[in-house]
């Protein structure tokens, strides 16, 4: 069987090749650095399985193109599946399998790192001390201890982020459509979404991107937040209306923002654009604020996560090989 991997960087190729060897998978693995788009789909000609990542596109047109060149299954190297048209995949009888969890610790820890960096300004201190500037003006933070942290979405990652914040001595409140017993056991208290929005000093987003959560953070919700609130998004860019975010930053309603994800990240993140003129003015505007930090969808990026992604991908390949059962199938 031939298998095509899209958006494959050197670290993906290395981890997949190593795991295939370890697991005794002897299929032909083809790695393409290109993102999957309508224009690149034909690279998968002759491949039965296509393996994609967060910024690949598997919409109706791309799925039909893949099917026409012989692709019969879609494997995701990630948990989120918002880039796949599940209705069309079903119509084409292409199972879609994902990696439901690879390291919730990686993402929760990155969110905690962003929170600490925004607060204590490590990025600015790093630059200053490299030039022997030891002036502390502008580096003033606050005690995280005793602050109210609000979490939206207490699944695997949100619950762990809450646990970390409880460890800091925070009052952790959360909103989710379901209560997670593990989150409750960590001391996280469930409240309404409105209360998370209005009572939190720090808000961290950990719910998936659905039509119901699209632009959850907008002019209206920002207006109800505490003045000077810290906002962290390691989930999906589409949860935030970036124009409203910029308005909130400009009028001081939002005190600081850390983004690991951005609504228009597709085609920007995971590639080197240094030396280019960036066309997206909303994106570039974010970099003019000293109280904004952007990381390029790297929250997941730990050794453990890459190994777990590769292991589950090999398990998913085996499941396709044996026509099921598909334990990691994405169902609508
Ligand atoms: P999960 O499925 O374990 O948890 C998601 C939680 O969100 C669930 O508890 C669910 O009930 C809740 N939820 C659903 N709809 C909601 C709503 N309308 N309001 C509030 N909560 C709602 O997922 P996870 O593994 O914890 O991942 C969380 C998010 O993090 C996902 O969007 C995922 O795509 C993203 N993620 C980002 C990275 C990264 O590198 N930045 C890596 C992995 C996952």
UniProtKB/TrEMBL annotation:
The entry lists its GO molecular-function terms as: NAD binding; oxidoreductase activity, acting on the CH-OH group of donors, NAD or NADP as acceptor
Q: Where is the D-isomer specific 2-hydroxyacid dehydrogenase NAD-binding domain?
A: 113-299
What Gene3D superfamilies has UniProt attached to this entry? NAD(P)-binding Rossmann-like Domain
Record keywords: NAD, Oxidoreductase
* Domain D-isomer specific 2-hydroxyacid dehydrogenase catalytic: from-to ranges: 11-330
Coiled coil listed as a keyword: no
Q: Which family does it belong to?
A: Belongs to the D-isomer specific 2-hydroxyacid dehydrogenase family.
- Identify this protein by name: D-isomer specific 2-hydroxyacid dehydrogenase
Q: Which organism is it from?
A: Achlya hypogyna
């Amino acid at each position: 069987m031939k298998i095509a991997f899209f958006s494959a960087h050197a670290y993906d190729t290395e981890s997949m090749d190593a795991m295939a060897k370890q697991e005794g998978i002897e299929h032909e693995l083809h790695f393409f650095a290109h993102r999957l788009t309508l224009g690149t789909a034909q690279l998968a000609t002759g491949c039965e399985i296509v393996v994609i990542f967060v910024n690949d596109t598997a919409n109706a047109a791309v799925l039909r193109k893949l099917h026409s060149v012989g692709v019969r299954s879609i494997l995701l190297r990630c948990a989120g599946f918002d880039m796949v048209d599940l209705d069309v995949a079903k119509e084409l009888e292409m199972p879609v399998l994902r990696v439901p969890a690879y390291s919730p610790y990686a993402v929760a820890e990155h969110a905690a790192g962003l929170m600490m960096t925004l607060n204590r300004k490590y990025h600015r201190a790093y630059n200053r001390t490299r030039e022997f500037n030891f002036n502390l003006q502008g580096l003033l933070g606050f005690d995280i201890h005793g602050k109210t942290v609000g979490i939206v979405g207490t699944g695997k990652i949100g619950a762990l982020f809450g646990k970390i914040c409880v460890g800091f001595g925070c009052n952790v409140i959360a909103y989710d459509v379901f209560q997670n017993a593990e989150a409750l056991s960590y001391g996280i208290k469930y409240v309404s979404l409105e209360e998370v929005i209005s009572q939190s000093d720090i808000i961290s987003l950990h719910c998936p991107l659905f039509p119901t959560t699209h632009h959850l953070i907008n002019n209206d919700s920002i207006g109800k937040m505490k003045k000077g609130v810290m906002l962290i998004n390691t989930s999906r860019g589409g949860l935030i209306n970036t124009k409203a975010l910029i308005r909130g930053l400009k009028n001081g309603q939002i005190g600081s923002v850390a983004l690991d994800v951005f609504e228009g990240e597709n085609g920007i993140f995971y590639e080197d654009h240094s030396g280019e003129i960036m066309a997206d003015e909303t994106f570039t505007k974010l970099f003019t604020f000293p109280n904004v930090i952007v990381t390029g969808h790297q929250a997941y990026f730990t050794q453990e996560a890459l190994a777990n992604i590769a292991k589950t991908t090999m398990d998913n390949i085996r499941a396709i090989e044996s026509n099921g059962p598909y334990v990691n199938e994405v169902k609508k």
